[in-house]
Request: fold
Amino acid sequence: MKKNQYDAIVVGTGISGGWAAKELCEKGLKTLVLERGRDVKHIVDYEDMKNPWELPHRGRVTQEDRRISPVQSGVYNYNEVSRKFFVKDIEQPYIEEKPFEWARGYQVGGRSLLWGRQCYRRSYLDFEANAKDGFGVDWPIRYEDLEPWYDYVEPFVGISGSKENLPHLPDGKFQPPMPMNCLEKLVAERVKKASNGSRLIINGRTANHTQRVGTRGPCQFRGKCESGCTYGGYFSSNSATIPAAMATGNMTLRPFSVVKEVLYDKEKRKATGVRVIDSETLEVYEYYADVIFLNASTLNTTLILLNSTSDAFPNGFGNSSGQIGHNLMDMPYGMGASGSYDGFLDKYTFGSRPTGIFVPRFRNIDKQSETKDFVRGYTYQGGAGRGKVGWSDGIGIELKEKLSEAGGWHMSITAWGEHLPYYDNKVTLDQVKKDKFGMPQLRIDCEFKENEKALGKDAMNSAAEILEMAGLKNIQTYDRNKIPGSCIHETGTARMGHDPKTSVLNKWNQMHDVKNVFITDGSSVCSSGTTPGPSVTYMALTARAVDYAVKEMRKGNIR
Amino acid sequence: MMMNRRKALEKVSWILGGSIVGAQAFLNSSFTFQAPEYVTSSERINFLNEIGETIFPETHTPGAKAANVGAFMEIIVRDCYTEADQTIFYNGLRDIEKQCNDLYGKGFLKCTPQQRIAFLTDLEKVHRDYMKNKKSTEPVHYFRMLKELTLTGVYTSEIGAVKLLNYNPAPGRYDGCTTEKPWN
Reply:
């Protein structure tokens, strides 16, 4: 056997890389798993058991954080504990042709330690959307293709949620949901009635466990998921897929491995392996395998492909279509409304719930709900709550007494919407600027256009209407004016498609140009989708692609 | 060399209770530093603890001093505040001393508990008027910072979290409709 030879190589250990590793190893393939950052061991490397007073800044972001990580330090769950799971921006620069917030976590587990954990299946609407309205290319799969794979991954993930029987928001294999509070229940009832069932408020679906999954969980309702979770209360690569892959004895995990390029054999028309820079020694190594899974996350997978040039592929690996790096999507979000409620003054909440309520899509789902203002749709996440009075006039004993009282109940819902695939929303490699490993810096050129703006405006106003239906008071709308990237749902830069001339991957997430390379992270999808929580779709796509790849290998079609 | 000198000056200006923003002026001009009342960090922590205690006093539950909010403020202002906000904060402390001297002929720490309450009650009102009328581009009043830091410092301290918030490191469940008030 050749030195450094494996059956399979997986690049990346985040949500999709972890799944690729688990599935390949469990099918008996000797698998090399490459991670550009350091190792993070489940439980051992977490600091979640620290109390707030044990942190020098009680969790706050410091001026030094802002200096070394101007982008990361602005991410919603960046704090004194979680910052070690984010990159340092000054060490890993990129170029913003237009403002783009690129949140990154370079370690074993990647951003699965930092994700929002919401899990919603995509529906027939999402898979058909491009074909129907002509934006992007037709996604070469339909809901039925992915349904068994959602069924397959969900019980292992451990998703809590409620069954709702909605064709445009398919149910999954759920654990019991995390409960709604009094106001959420009341609002859900009132809105359903007032809208004749056209607006629904349901339990959020989250990869926080209400039941044990093997040795993991259940969730302890501590509200500090981004610290890592010693209880294994939520799904991450570190808690779930990496240990499963390790347990097979088939995985070799190599941290500190920056993949520079994919190696290509022009004669055999296949990838032979990858070239890796050891991030500690800067030495270069080559590893070889029969099949390669790229799961470096959307933008870094794109970077590797565009940096892998050869006579056969002068414009990037498997890029005969010229589509790699194009059609970059995120999701417009942050538009919504809030309101208050006068009742339930003898009721409180206990525990920190890591999810909230969800409002399924209601625009453009059928003839009745069609609007001329925009195509596609949006959904909301939100929640109600009641806390201690946080601020009051005055000082002294009087102030202290006021602060021990409870405030009123309030509720807000915030929209997540679809971002259409536009060819000119793109990433390219800068011709001059490199990072410390000699890799070209990414130049990101992405914006929201008219459809996203129109959709966002409607989402904001509709949020207020929904809260009005519930009889809430003091309703206020807001638009957080989020820039692309800040939803951390970047997708689309190595899309699937029927036609090799206009797409990078086939319906099995296999490269049209190079049959032994599969890409199953966010870069592979054809549309951003209407619901948040895209990760469960990457998981299902990955498990499906591994199943196909291994069958093809056994048939001798991939070797 | 320049960096070292600047660093040294930053350190000096910090010990004096000045702000880092002053360092460049120090280098470039004949700017002279006006020595404030409290010249060491421990003296300032004591001063901040007394201000905090007046804002959030001990009753049947602990107050700001028991939570050592002075030490908390010292670290947060130093490490988390922007240079501009640090300047506002430290100038504010000097302003308190100046005003107390004008009103009572002595510094804040020498004032009686009644004088401290009367003084900060008035200052709180001045701050409220300022905050209400200020333009969005204008900075916050330093009293806002003191009050916010006092409250955060109390509730994130061990004694404050345990005694005032019934701190529970692992609630184990979510109850969205309980009649039991979750804090004290």
Q: What stands out?
A: The beta strands of chain B are 175-178. Helices of chain B lie at 2-15, 22-28, 41-55, 69-79, 83-104, 113-133, 142-155, 158-165. Residues 1-36 of chain B have pLDDT under 50 and may be disordered.
